[in-house]
Design goal:
Number of helices: 4
Shape: elongated
Radius of gyration: 32 Å
Oligomer: single chain
Strand content: 15-25%
Length: about 230
């Protein structure tokens, strides 16, 4: 049932057939292999060798398709080439001899260069995001909505590049200079304060932007303080 000319997609069928053949040979007297069975075994080995060559060619093609100078837009292609390379090496490396299957892929160095290029670009992008966030200047304003019983805290970028921002954190106090408590975070440019409001009390608000990189948050300076009396 196996095709005369195999493709990579035939690999599972060829391996399953070889496993059946190996089991059959193991079940015969003293594991003797007769001429007909030997030819079948040779055929299966040849097909598996052909598939290995096809897989090596596919890995080479994936690496050769990578541009000489990668950009972050090429990250997925680089990762796919690395996954294919790793899978090939993991399956065909022979640890009994100091020769690796990777030696069959002569242009593997190009993959490593592309990965190094992507890593360098990512680090540069992270640095840019951190610097842009930390230098960002925000301006806060407030507005009282009597009908809906809330104070809306709004902000805008006064100076800097907010394209890297992941969100904003808002803080609230009844004193201008101290006792600010975390009110919440949002990706919007405003937040409504509906809870904990007492009539006749003046509330102060300040905001800072953040970007999250590798699980760590980096913040801008606090904005100016916006304030409003709740009536």
């Amino acid at each position: 049932a196996l095709p005369a000319v195999v493709k990579i997609t035939d690999k599972a069928a060829v391996k399953a057939t070889k496993e059946l053949m190996d089991a059959y040979n193991a079940a015969t007297e003293a594991g003797q292999i007769y001429e007909g069975e030997s030819k079948i075994a040779d055929t299966l080995t040849a097909k598996l060798t052909a598939i290995k060559t096809l897989e090596a060619d596919a890995v080479k093609a994936a690496i050769e398709a990578l541009p000489l100078n990668v950009t972050l837009a090429d990250k997925a292609a680089v990762e796919a080439a690395r996954a294919a390379y790793d899978a090939y090496v993991a399956e065909y490396t022979d640890y009994t001899v100091p020769v690796y299957a990777a030696d069959d892929i002569t242009n593997a160095d190009e993959l490593f260069k592309a990965e190094a290029g992507i890593e360098a670009l990512e680090e540069a992008e992270k640095d840019a995001a951190i610097k842009a966030t930390e230098s960002l200047k925000l301006s806060v304003s407030t507005k009282l909505y009597k009908k809906s019983n809330k104070i809306r805290v709004s902000w805008k970028v006064k100076d800097g590049d907010a394209s890297y921002i992941d969100g904003y954190q808002v803080y609230k106090s009844t004193k201008a200079q101290k006792n600010y408590k975390y009110m919440g975070k949002t990706k919007k440019s405003y937040m409504d304060n509906k809870k904990g409001l007492k009539k006749g009390t003046r509330y102060f608000y300040k905001v800072k932007a953040y970007v999250e990189i590798d699980g760590q948050k980096y913040f801008s300076d606090y904005s100016n303080k916006g304030n409003r009396i709740y009536k």
